[in-house]
User: Fold this.
Amino acid sequence: GENVEQHPSTLSVQEGDSAVIKCTYSDSASNYFPWYKQELGKRPQLIIDIRSNVGEKKDQRIAVTLNKTAKHFSLHITETQPEDSAVYFCAVRGAGGTSYGKLTFGQGTILTVHP
Amino acid sequence: DGGITQSPKYLFRKEGQNVTLSCEQNLNHDAMYWYRQDPGQGLRLIYYSQIVNDFQKGDIAEGYSVSREKKESFPLTVTSAQKNPTAFYLCASSMQRPALVAGGADTQYFGPGTRLTVL
Assistant:
């Protein structure tokens, strides 16, 4: 099945700095890559996603880049704010065999933005 | 997200008991999913269902059972065979059946979760 590795596990930045979280995956046929934000005790919320036919997508301060050759994708948050503090999860949707259609999640990154 | 509800919010179970977690959605979504979340391990898929009366095992199905008798409902039973059931359980749903998606987005929307504790 799909194997997703997410780094770093914790990330601490000063307000206004940028934050980058990276995920690698194993199945080259995977075709959909969402990022979720989860605040303490709450449900995960989709913040941005990218499909395999696109290399980069941006939504205000958030961007995602995808390198299909290297099988990795990254979340970029610019001008971080304290309310960006949360756990961020990457996920990969399988496209073949027993992984088809299922999301496999990374282990999560705890982002802390200090005022 | 408001269209997916889970109950109860907190659940306490004695060892040896079966308990059932409820998940309901009014989004007319075909697919529904159950995940387990433990600290530092992300979300792991327990079971998923693409259509009524059909479901498949995920990565950690042992000790769990599900049913999908109605499109809106996908209850999860945590049986006594599950050795370490204390966790945060999340239900999710998506619009399209995964097997029919060919490059289109298949966004999963999550319920608020149920925190299960074994006493």
Chain B has no helices and eleven strands. The interface with chain A takes residues 1, 31, 33, 35, 40-45, 48, 50, 58-59, 90, 97-99, 101, 103, 105-113 of chain B (CB under 8 Å).
